[in-house]
Amino acid sequence: MYLLPELHKMHYSNKMTSLQVRDLPEHIHFKLLELSRRENRSLAQQAISVLAVGLNLVLDSKARRKEAILATEVLHSDKGSVVFPDPVHLIHVDRNR
């Protein structure tokens, strides 16, 4: 699965974000607790895992490495030279962050 550049940047950035869920139904909380104990994870790790699966995102390291290899192959043309993005465009994108 290849992520769009914006999602790829968010997915692989070192910056961790947080999410607070209010009024979580009790049955969902208990199910997450049950799954987290069964899979030997913290509640937060299990919530991230369930969200990722529900959103069809890849989290395991093997799949991330495979995706990174595919992404680098996309950068290479048929002649083996690397195709770099336009630096002016990159500067504009960076300034608009």
Put the structure in a nutshell:
The chain is mainly alpha-helical and 97 residues long. It has five helices and no strands. The protein has one domain (5-95).
What does the overall shape look like? elongated
Structural class, judged by helices and strands? Answer: mainly alpha
Average residue-wise pLDDT: 77
Number of domains: 1
Low-confidence stretches: none
Itemize the secondary structure elements and their pairings.
Layout: H1 5-12, H2 26-38, H3 43-54, H4 61-75, H5 87-95
Helix pairs in contact: 2-3
Quick tags:
single chain, 97 residues, mainly alpha
Describe the structure.
Helices cover 59% and strands 0% of the residues. Helix 2 (26-38) packs across helix 3. The two termini are 26 Å apart. The protein has one domain (5-95). It is built from 5 helices and no strands.
